[in-house]
Amino acid sequence: MSEKTIVQGVSEALDYKLTQDENVLLYGEDIGPNGGVFRVTSGLQDKHGVDRVFDTPLAESGILGMSIGLATEGFRPVPEIQFSGFILEAMSPLIAQLSRMRYRMANTRNMPITIRAPYGGGVHTPELHSDSLEGLMAQVPGIRVVIPSNPYDAKGLLISSIESEDPVIFLEHLKLYRSIKQEVPDEDYRVPLDKAAIAREGSDVTVIGYGLMIPEALKAAKELENDISVEVVDLRTVSPIDMETILESVKKTGRVVVTQEAQRQAGTAGQIMSEISERAFMYMEAPITRVTGPDSVFPFGAAEADWIPNSTNIIEKVKEVYDF
Fold first, then answer.
1. Is the torsion defined by CA of 101, 103, 104, 109 positive or negative?
2. Active-site residue, 129 included
3. What is the distance in angstroms between the CA of the first residue and the CA of the last residue of the chain?
4. pLDDT category, 175, cuts 50, 70, 90?
5. CB under 8 Å to 70, separation ≥6 — which residues?
6. Which of 103, 159, 205, 282 is disulfide-compatible with 255, CB 3.0–4.6 A?
């Protein structure tokens, strides 16, 4: 075991599945000889061949359309959308076809497709290269949305996603790709899908989040530890949401802050707040609140630091619900 980044964890998961299952195919824009924009697939074409790791034209709709055909013929495609904002070009094959194929075919067809895409901001990319569209994806029935917040989960969740018989959108945060390291086993292992993790135990306030918001929440919890005991819940899968783990934590603390990098309106945070209100209202000691990006388009790089939520914002909300 050694310390690895999320890039390394994802790359190892892809390498393992290519080695273990001859039906796994990787393809996308510049993922072959170049190894992708972030070098996640670097060296995989040399090792596994151009028939299994290959470049595609700049056509996201074609990439996902081809994935449906390949899955129908028994392959296990792992297409890469170069940045999550580009998936808007492929909404028809994603929502009108891929997501509903099992229902349409009366449960006689699997769609074992894992769509990888970088998402989020914080690295000063041009417009449409930084977006948090997971709330949009999570609203589509038939698609699972997975978001790791650390290298260990990235490797284990991606292996589980590729082995799933249903479509998965696997979102990898731009800023987390190389900014954190963690002990990751060299051998294969799985992290279960649809199961949240308690990233830090606490007793006074529950902070629920995913992706970049988890290291920010952990930083907030550390700064508050002498005054307020904060429990941090890492969703890991934002659709479906593991409400069982959330409710167990809520019943323990009675105070909740939900945080997401995405805009405030109609997102994952709003859904969680509604579910808690319906299922655990009598356990609450304070109104549920949230920390989110503002309801505007994702800003240009110069304004990202003011736009993206951080540990300071989380600390303010934790104090607010604790003192209510």
1. positive
2. yes
3. 45
4. very high
5. 25, 77
6. 205
